[in-house]
Amino acid sequence: MKKSLLSILLWAGLFFWTRSAAAQNCSLTSVRCVGSGQEYSTIQSAADAAVAGDVVYVYNGTYAGFRVVSGHVSGTALAPITFQAQSSAVQITTPNSDGNGVTVNLVDYVTINGFTITGMSNFGIDVVECQSCQILNNTVSGSGQSNILTGFAYGVLIQGNTTFGAQNTQHGIYVSNSARSLDVPVVRGNTSYSNAGAGIQFNGDCNTYDHLGNSDGMISGALVENNVIHDNAAAGLSLINLSDSILRNNVLWDTEAVAGFKLSDEGCGLGTNRNLIVNNTIVAAGALSTTGVRIIQPASGNVIFNNIVINTGGNACVLDDTASACSNGGENNYYLGGLLKTPAQATTVFTNFAGQNFTLVSGSPAIGAGLAIGNSYLPPAIDILGNIRPYGGHWDDGAYQYNATAAAPDTTPPTTPGTPTSSGLTPYQVTLTWTASTDTREVLQYYISRDGTVIGFADGGILSYTDSAISPGSHTYTIAAVNGGSLVSTASGGLVLTGPGISGCLNADATWRNRALPTESGTFQWEADVTPFVTTANDGVVGLGQSVPNGYASMGVAVRFSSSGDIDVRNGGAYAAAMTLPFSVGSSYHLRVPINVPAHTLSVYVTPPGGPEQTLASNYAWRTEQASATSLGYVGLMDDQGSMAVCNQLIGGLPLDSMIFATLTPSTSSTPILVDVSGAGHPVMDRSTVVNHAETSYTLTEGGGGNRLLRFTSSSPVTVTVPAGLTPNQSFTLLQAGSGVIQIGAGAGVNLIQRRGTLRTAGLGAPVTIQSTGVQDEYVVWGDLQ
Q: How far apart are CA 117 and CA 408, in angstroms?
């Protein structure tokens, strides 16, 4: 049990591995000393030799930057590779070959502690695709891009850093990208100011992919606390596609644009959702009129309370989904109260408003104004200075608790939560509930594990969680509690349950489920194996529609496993059948459905288990509401109470999972490369990978409905032609590895976005040529967006 709990703690990025900056014994094999008269004269040479458990100890002096990248050995959870500066006088002033002070890429468990990094042409510290890396106590300034950047960094700890003066609209600290359902970055105790962009920015960035071509576009589970952020040109805290995170005890002042907190979406449609923004102090002084918390739709479930917001010009918005319209509550988010004042009133709130001392003055209206709970979410149990909340029986607004005493170290983990129980089980989700854990200070969160892997978390005041990614089959769920001191309880007892349906198939429940098809507008045949898991009290319907099915009337073609226990077919305005064909629960029935789209007719042939094919319908009319539909592009499935599974779908005798939605046609061959659709049960995007194909020149062609996402990887120069006239908003992503070039020849109105935001435009057949960096990179082509 101790091993599994430790792994949870380490994975969550809350295990603080620190080493003293005191002088090291350079004779030890695990210590590699760098500096004048030491074993290594450069940090890079010591980095190249370092192995798991080593400390690279850097004596005071001026150095060039260094890289720890793919091919280098990783550290481990209990034996990280640590780069430790003797003091802040260890200065990196010359960039490494990436233009960075420090680069960590595809290497895990690396700690960067105590360096001063100044004036890098690219990033000060760049940590990409790293598990449980730590960036501690560094001073990073004047970078051409963000001072500290992380991407696809899971369980990363960014703590105690000072960042300022990032250029080119870039940020002090930038936490970006995700390809996992849980990211759990911790950003704590940093100071970030005078940057050309945001003080601290999070961005899930659905348009950037890791080296395996994966992305989910949403950063989740962040803990952002005790940061001081001021005088930045953009938002103090910019939150783009961030979910299920806690932002507390932060102090922000003199944000120069937009908002102290800005919650937004970057064209991904994912929103910034279910975040807790609590006990922060947000001040806009002088001529500034920024919003306290601005929420740009789509966004839902964000809970905001116990904050102090000081704004000029009467613009004390808390929720603001446009630049000019302010509202304090609603819009599927929850503003539960806080202290809103103008600068003229602020002198009664703080100890020294003009001097940026935002501790509370005696008699402050923030004292005792806070809530002890909001929508089941809990405020922090200590303030930004480590003082106890509540004090004197009350909670204060803002990051500081008035006249409080320092909290003692929290050395005891929470008690064990109760064994979870379940409700609402479907093939796609289940809701878990449990009894609370207790702690001497606070239960910060509950970790929810399925089959031994942490899949999500709930705030310490919330005793339920809905798993929306369950699959059919047997699963075991456990719950563990973590406190504010990062100590984790023993896991609860296990709940064993069996998800209904058939794994790998399209399964029905009380919500409409669908699967994209190649758009069909002529005569074709659809086939599938359908297994009903319904009682005779329920109807289960499977069919085809022109658009995403959201009701029975949206399907022109519909086959019903009816409550009478028979299979029938929609014929115009009613269900009918050429014969009575009963079905058995749990048995598979093969449907063969010839369809004539222009004539709006269908026939249905059913093969029962162990029996011959039966004619159930011959030349029936489409459902009346779809009599004028011109195409079919989706399979829809609904069972209002039970479940049914649709498996092994075929279009014209070809498996749907290998249908051509788009093709790459090589220049020297007429045989196209097939681009597969997304796979069973995942109709959101069509995905495929073509790796190191011999051809170097291709034409990209559309071949059906759906949003096509093509990943192309090659170690050779590649030319891809994207013709004009693509369906609007269809994206194609090209990934290349190697030292060659990738040339995009595009039709009129085609825009090319290079990774990390460089916009290139190609039109009228003019190609765009980009020199590869020698590592895998990404290019997204959007068609006809003008």
A: 35
Distance CA 149, CA 111 (A): 14
- Cα–Cα dist 311/563, whole Å: 62
Is the distance from CB of 256 to CB of 232 less than 8 angstroms? yes
Distance of alpha carbon 385 from alpha carbon 738, whole angstroms: 50
Short-list 307, 296, 368, 294, CA closest to 341: 307
- The pTM for the full model equals 0.77
Q: Return the closest-CA partner of residue 749 out of 727, 734, 719, 770.
A: 727
Find out whether 250 and 276 touch, Cβ atoms under 8 Å. no
pLDDT in tens, 650-699: 988 878 765 544 444 445 444 443 333 333 322 222 333 333 344 445 55
Band (724; pLDDT cuts 50, 70, 90): very low
Summarised one tens digit per residue, pLDDT across range 530-548 is 998 866 667 889 999 998 8
CB 380 within 8 A of CB 442: yes
User: How close are the terminal C-alpha atoms of the chain, in Å?
Assistant: 58
Other residues' Cβ atoms within 10 Å of the Cβ of residue 78:
12
Q: Is the predicted pLDDT of residue 717 greater than 60, yes or no?
A: no
Cα distance between residue 372 and residue 305, in whole Å: 10
Q: Do 683 and 516 form a contact (C-beta atoms < 8 A)?
A: yes
Q: Which helix (H) or strand (E) holds 499?
A: strand 495-499
pLDDT of residue 359: 97
Cα-Cα-Cα-Cα dihedral sign, residues 491, 493, 499, 505: positive
Closest of 255, 130, 250 to residue 190, by C-alpha: 250
Residues 6+ away with beta carbon under 8 Å from 326: 291, 315, 316, 317, 318, 319, 320
Question: How many Å apart are CA 254 and CA 349, to the nearest integer?
Answer: 17
Cα torsion at 698, 703, 708, 711 (round to 10°)?
-30
201 Cα distance to chain centroid: 14
Strands 523-533 and 643-651: antiparallel
Instruction: List pLDDT tens digits, range 87-129.
Output: 999 999 999 999 999 999 999 999 999 999 999 999 999 999 9
Least Cα distance to 101 among 116, 86, 80, 83 occurs for: 116
Tokens of 500: 């209904």
What letter does residue 114 receive in the DSSP assignment? Answer: S
**Residue 694 is which amino acid?**
A
Distance CA 727, CA 334 (A): 38
Q: Are 170 and 146 in contact (CB under 8 A)?
A: yes
Distance CA 365, CA 295 (A): 26
196 residue type, one letter: A
**Number of CB atoms found within 10 A of residue 494's CB:** 15
3-state helix, strand, coil in the chain (%, to 5): 5, 45, 55
